[in-house]
Design a protein that fits this description.
mainly beta, globular, 3-methyladenine DNA Glycosylase, Chain A, 30% strand
């Protein structure tokens, strides 16, 4: 849960062959150890093996066959847990992001939601397992930009362990996803 809050305001960067794409993280969801809604709950599999890497690695998976989702591992090696990146505020490569955004022409919607976030950043299974804290094509960076108040609420779109306040977001940020009542 600490990592989910800590990631708010950090920048996720993807250096692609077409140039740099980046966005300021404005919304996350925690999936801690033992969470029945988390992919690690039933143990390590071929699909979720990256979720069991040490803290700071990418766990990327295909959700419902339509969207890739990006998580940051949160535990020591061998223990599964992570933080889903739910929304970004685009910073670099906005033209490239807009060109690939068939769902919208509004800047505030490009990285709003975990599937749109990965589409905007051109993240897919090729980045699964990447060390986000080391030199590479996909990495996390800090920023000098201040962070607004951080709110938290229940997570979005899950059916198990639904009551926990494990979603974190920058209040008042236009790029945050979800219904208005969860952004108070």
């Amino acid at each position: 849960m600490e990592l989910a809050r800590y990631l708010i305001g950090k920048v996720i960067v993807h250096d692609t062959k077409f140039g740099r794409l980046s966005g300021r993280i404005v919304e996350t969801e925690a999936y801690p150890v033992g969470d029945a809604a988390g992919h690690a709950f039933n143990g390590k599999t071929q699909r979720n093996r990256s979720l069991f890497l040490e803290r700071g690695h990418a766990y990327v998976y295909l959700c419902y066959g339509t969207s890739f989702l990006l998580n940051v591992t949160s535990e020591i090696a061998g223990v599964g847990g992570g933080v889903l990146l739910r929304a970004i505020e685009p910073l670099e490569g906005i033209g490239e992001m807009m060109a690939g955004a068939s769902h919208t022409t509004r800047l505030s919607c490009i990285g709003r939601g975990p599937g749109r976030l990965t589409k905007a950043l051109q993240v897919n299974l090729a980045q699964d397992g990447a060390d986000l804290c080391a030199a590479g094509a996909l990495w996390l960076a800090g920023t000098a930009q201040g962070i607004g108040r951080i709110g938290n609420s229940v997570r979005i779109g899950i059916t198990r362990n639904v009551a926990g306040l494990l979603r974190y977001y920058e209040t008042g940020n236009a790029h945050v996803s979800g219904v208005k009542k969860l952004q108070q």
